[in-house]
Amino acid sequence: MFVRGTEGGILAALFLYSLAVASAQYTKVREHTSHHITRLRHSRHLDGYHTASFIPATAPKLAVKDNHKPLFTECLNYRPTVKEDQPVGTYVFTVHAEDRDPPEMGGTVTYKFVSTPGEKERFRVDPETGSITTADMFDHDEPSREKEAYITVRASDNGQPQLDDACTIKILIEDVNDNPPVFDKVSYSESVPQDLPSGREVMRISATDIDDGNNSIVHYSLDSNSPDQAYFSIDPANGVIFLNKTIDKPPGYKFKLSAIVKDMGTPSLQSSITLDIQVVESNKKSPSFIEVPDEPIRLKENYSDFNTPIATVRAVSNIPEEKKLQFELVQGQTEQTNKWHTFVLEPEADSAYIKLGNHLDYEKITDYTLTVRIQNNYKLAAETIIQIEVEDVNDNIPIFSEIRSGSVLENEPPGTPVMQVRAFDADGTSANNQITYELGDPSDPFEIDKTTGNITTLNMFDREERNFYNVKIIATDNSESALIPGKHNAGQQVFLIEIADKNDNPPRFTQDTYVAESIAENANINELVTEVSAVDIDTASVVTYSIVAGNTYDAFVIRNFTGEIRVNNELDYENITSYNLDVRAFDGIYEDYAKVIINIENLNDNPPVFLANYTKTIEEEKLYEGCIVKVEAYDPDIKDRSAPQNIVYSLVKHEQKEFLQIDNDGCLRLTKPLNRDQPLGFTKWQILIMAADHGGRLGSDSLRSTTEVILELTDINDNAPFLTNTQPVIWYENEPPGHVVALTAKDYDSAENGPPFTFALNESASFDIRSKFHIQGNILSTLVSFDREQRKEYKIPVAITDSGTPRLTGVSILHVVIGDKNDNPMAPGHSDIFVYNYKGEAPDTEIGRVYVDDPDDWDLADKRFMWLPSYEQRSPYFDIHSNTGMITMKEGTPNGTYLLRFNVTEENEPIVPFHWVEATVNVTIKEIPEEAVDKSGSIRFVNITAEEFIVPEMDGTSKKDKLHRTLARLYNTSMDNVDVFTVFTKTTVKDVFLDVRFSAHGSPYYPPEKLDSMVIGIQEKLEEELQSKIYMVKIDECLIEKEQCEDACRNVLMKNNVPLSVYTNTTSFVGVSARVESECTCDVVEPLVCLNGGTPFADKCECPEGLSGPHCEQTSIGFHGDGWAMYAAPPACQEGHVTLTVTSHSSNSLIFYLGPLKHNPLLEVQDFMSLELVEGFPVLLVNYGTGTTRLNNSVVQVADGKPHLIEIVLMRSSIEMFVDRCKLSTCMSLAAPTGPREILNVNGPLQLGGASIDLQNLARTFGWKHVPTNQNFVGCISNFTYNDFMYNLGEPSLHRNADPSCQRSMFTAVTFGIDTNFLVAILVCIVILAILLLAVVVHRRRADAWAEKELDDIRENIIAYEDEGGGEGDAGYDLHVLRQMYDGPLPDTDTFMQSRGLVGAAPDISGFLDDKKSVLDRDPDITPYDDVRHYAYEGDGNTSGSLSSLASCTDDGDLKFNYLSTFGPRFRKLADMYGDSDDERPHEESWC
After folding, report:
1. CA atoms lying within 13 Å on the CB side of residue 415
2. What is the edge-to-edge ordering of all strands in the sheet holding 123-125?
3. Are 1487 and 1377 in contact (CB under 8 A)?
4. Average of pLDDT values for 740-749?
5. Which of 224, 521, 874, 1208 has the fewest C-beta atoms under 10 angstroms from its C-beta?
6. Whole-number Å distance between alpha carbons of 1240 and 1283
7. Angle of CA points 239, 244, 247, to nearest 5°
8. Least confident range of 64-68, 681-685, 973-977, 1038-1042
9. CA dihedral 438, 440, 444, 450 (to 10 degrees)
10. In Å, what is the CA distance from 1248 to each residue of 114, 512, 1190?
């Protein structure tokens, strides 16, 4: 608010008076109960200055009747500057616009730039302060020449409506001295006559600085350090170099001189250049100018005569009878020195004419400095400078800034400012760029200041009559136009001037009272309750809403601009059942009020309350009858405590339900006695009891609370004591009798039933132990001296008796080891070490110790190990540690068997004198490839260590050797093709496991499903052979649900090249580090791998024809009632989605089975899933491990010979099956899993089309309620996926009688329902086709024979596969299709998509032809474009007469093609043409 002069006191008095009036009005309003409107404003006599009105909400606030626009009062006075090259964020200046309104009522001004779409942001403005900073870096100099920038700032207020003002400002970009002067030439070279008089001009140098002002003024000097500087002087202003003294140097001498040019900026910058001045004979004179312009040449910028000379120069050569001169207009390094050939020189005899070469522009370059050089035949030269000044002309039209609109309030008096327009003229001088403004239509109700562009009103406007005007403004410059003779340049623009609305109407609520029923007391914070609305016919008025009364505890909040009433705090029916709110609508001046009634709905929002916590003391191991504790709770939502509370009690901890139960009366009973003592018992048992109201109904709004019952157990003496000594206890041999150890014990009972303890040898102790050991008190003593070589350890049974009632005695075994002393000499020894080298990448590895036969086994410190016969003759692949005897295999050791010899010495005086023996070690190293590890089978044994597995037994062979031999027999292959390569011990809390991995191969390696399933078939026999128990075949860390992962779990085979070593005395085994680890996720992005000959391209595979899977999988497989196919099992995921397409020709059959192959009593795992057809309808069996769930679909008939899509969804709480995407309740199957288990964990393979085992017998061993069928499938299974993973059905791991791609014909007429007559008709058609085919074959044979006799040069071609035209890219021929071998039928167990090997060592034909084609592509002597016909066609008229053309760039050895005869009958022609002759070979016809 602004107050001037004496009006201040009057205004203050009126302000206080208005507050009083407003307060009285507000009191009166609140007492009025009907619909009302209140209008609060001050008297008009305040002459345009408006004070505040009272707002009946909280505190008094200002309200203004009129909204004033912000004004840039200093717009014309802004003269901002910014230096070039300043960093982004540099402060420039601050703009400010005044608004007379109060800040909260329209007086808050924000700033932003007005710009055109796509315009680059060069400055930033702070929207609140108006501070302007740079957003870009500027360059005042060439080539940018950014000398000024224009910005338009808009100031906007927060009034209603929002009003604006705009100001366009020119910002000058100031030059900084950031460019050094640049010489106009790269080098200067002149000649000077030997007799040139002193003081005469020798040459001129010139430099230009593209900076501005003093930064561009240059001064010249000669480097005082130059040795010949004394001979010359230079004019510092114009760069003319004069001879300073007589030349006393001989002709040919070159003066060494350097010139320096420096600008006048701060700081000063400089450049230097070397001058080459050569002395010539005295009779040689340099040329001279006889006519040059005396004054600068002035040209107007619009001068465009490119033919008429601008200036003429004349010169003489100063060579008698030789007037020839060479003229040159020197091209400088800046635009001012003619860098871009703005001027050109045309010589003619002794004259040269300077003409215009490019258009001039004063706004870019105002002057030019031209250097004209002449040279005579003596190679002497002279130069002169011509100055050209460019004069400005009026060739730019004024252009308006970006502002296109303005506004003015209605009912404002004439003369009210509307907006300011600004136009700019790009001409460079004030004589041409001064602008005046005028209205395009004098009848418009506005006037404009011709100098400033300020537009004001001529009339008072009424928005209801007209709400906008389009006003044309003309901007004219101040001189005659160079574009339009006789006129001035003028630009025009139409501006939109809007008539803004004023707030002169009150808002009105649409209802007097709003009612919101049944708002739940547990409504969420911010939940919508109701919405109020008020209408204001003023378009500019924004109505805001507020709650002014009745909002107890701030329970609700109203959105200011929408009228939405939402929950703000928690509601409680028990405290307040209904709210009566007064709401206010306010448009800035006027207001209205309404009532809002909100009724709260009572809900069950109070959980049951227990009357107390409970504690009970009972005796352990005792079963009580009746209630041990009676708990009681009530429901606070039920006011009558005597009424039924409808509360259900339950035990919270699931594991406590084994020995406790509670009924709905709160009676807690024991079903099993409780144990007080460790390790399974507790002195105090905490029992959590939960009470649920509303009968505890699931899905209802039942609420729950818990309490604890503490059961304190009294002790009985029911635990015998046991030893706690650290074991084993070591007692050294040869020691005299003495104390071995003080015995210590522990009892899990209480102190009353525990110590003190009494110790004695148990009656079960042998006579040997009793004769050698004795216990007195708690001390174990020896009675004799021991010899470790006779016995190494003793297991002594110790009886410990406690002091309880009654007393209990326990027996513990004390392990006493007889410590070794070196008292025996050693003897020669031999050991064997086998090493598997993974991919040949094993680093330096310790593989085992040297073994000697020595009864002592703790005497390693007395031994030393050395190479035999000498260190120099040691093996280069191994090292020996002289103190420990550990052998290290070096990295890079090749495969083979190595016999290592060592000299071992021992000395332990005086017991064992110094002696030595020879020890030999046989080391076998075998490299194993990564494929063998990736495709390995696995077995987990229980209660056996790695050392026990590899050490030779009584028969001289180890368990590992026995396993190796058994696997070779099982897979019907040699032992060399079987590798048992990983042996390592895995210790758990309960058991000791031994994990063994193995592989087997013919060609290629057998898949793991084949290896594991065949081992399962002989599991009992293998256990008997090895005398070891198998825990599982196919090691699976995810098999036990939630043991490794809470949700999803997948097995990952972790491999590395650091071996795993197992050492024993005579045998050591160094295997591959390959172990299965669990990974708790199923969402893994696998790398792109293309199968079956596919090639990766970008993020997908390009597949051969017929392979439709995303990774080129073969997506279908067929069965004929007697087969099955086996694949890898899917991971254990928290959700599983199975899809497959089934085309069935049998009504009762097994589609797939996923589950165990054998019952394993050591594992409580029975998970399986099967899908079968029963009477043509799909039936799904799923067992998560605790019972089988059966789902059947009796709507969609699947066994109709047509493809049907079956989808299976496995989730924790539900199992779903859909057929043909039908999601209706009538055709979808849904059931819950049986039992508490939630995830499918299987240890067997996936089998399609049938099962390799007897499922009926397997179901009996597991006790399955529902049994999968054993009847095999007839039909086709395709597109089998699990969680979007597509199975490669064409490559089963193991199979029997399966049909890849479902291509085999089916002739069973009964299956298809074909009658006899139709079958006969089909057979007749087949016979006719066979006759026609026979005729064609006979005809072809005759034609081939004729062709061979008559046209010897017409030979086979491969055009049937591809063709490629000139200039194309290589078509990417797939020559693998040529490689079809006749090796007999594939055996049942071979991989379907496998490429068969060639006979003998014949090379690959596809690789051969690809290599030759590549050679031709690189041959520089052939045609440069691709043309497959050069080698694809053979015969007359072609560029290559035979396939020998492929042999360019090859030697004679490459031209032997004898192996073509091994490619089969289709390549017989090639073999005939290029192989060695073989008269005995029978002739076969061409396959064409």
Report:
1. 1
2. 91-94, 131-134, 123-125
3. no
4. 94
5. 224
6. 14
7. 120
8. 64-68
9. 0
10. 72, 75, 19
Nearest to 400 by CA among 168, 230, 588: 168
- Token pair in block for residue 170: 């020119």
Cα end-to-end distance, the chain, whole Å: 105
**Greater pLDDT, 638 or 27:** 638
Strand partners, 1056: 1073
pLDDT bucket at 324, cuts 50 / 70 / 90? confident
> Residue 986: which of 936, 934, 929, 1032 has the closest Cα?
1032
Find the farthest-apart pair of alpha carbons in the chain and give their distance in angstroms, rounded. Answer: 150
Strand partners, 670: 660
Q: What is the dihedral of CA 75, 78, 84, 89, to 10 degrees?
A: -70
Strand-by-strand arrangement of the 556-558 sheet: 528-531, 564-567, 556-558
pLDDT-derived band at 284, boundaries 50, 70, 90? confident
pLDDT band for position 1470 (cuts 50, 70, 90): low
Contact yes or no for 632/666 (Cβ under 8 A): yes
* 67 DSSP 8-state letter: P
8 Å CB contact between 1302 and 1289: no
Could you tell me if 1272 and 1119 are in contact, meaning their C-beta atoms sit under 8 angstroms apart? yes
Residue 1349 burial (CB count, 10 A) = 8
CA distance 228 to 223: 10
**Spatial distance between the Cα atoms of 106 and 359, rounded to a whole number of angstroms:** 54
Task: Report the DSSP beta bridge partners of residue 1178.
Answer: 1173
Helices 959-970, 1008-1017: crossing angle, 10 deg rounding: 100
- Reported as a pLDDT band with limits 50, 70 and 90, residue 471 is very high
Main-chain dihedrals φ then ψ at residue 234, nearest 5 degrees: -135, 140
Q: Within 13 Å of residue 312, how many CA atoms lie on the same side as its CB?
A: 9
Non-local (6+) Cβ contacts of 209 within 8 A are 179, 180, 181, 182, 215, 216, 217, 218, 263, 269
- Taking CA 1145 as the corner, what is the angle to CA 1143 and CA 1151, rounded to the nearest 5 degrees? 60
Three state DSSP letters for 622-661: CCCCCCCEECCEECCCCCCCCCCCCCEEEECCHHHHHCEE
DSSP sequence for 199-241:
T-EEEE--EE--S-GGGG-EEEEE-TTSTTGGGEEE-TTT-EE
| Close Cβ partners of 571 (under 8 Å, ≥ 6 residues apart) | 519, 520, 521, 522, 523, 555, 600
Check: CB of residue 81 under 8 Å from CB of residue 367: no
Structure token digits, residue 1136: 């599983």
The CA-CA-CA angle for residues 545, 547, 551, to 5°, reads: 155
How does DSSP classify residue 31? H
- By DSSP bridging, strand 1274-1282 and strand 1136-1144 are antiparallel
Please give the structure tokens belonging to residue 356: 């215009």
Contact in structure between 906 and 916 (CB atoms under 8 Å):
yes
Helix (H) or strand (E) holding 1432: helix 1429-1432
Q: Would you say how long the chain is, in residues?
A: 1488
- Provide, for the chain, the percentages of residues in helix, strand and coil under a 3-state DSSP scheme, each rounded to the nearest 5: 15, 35, 50
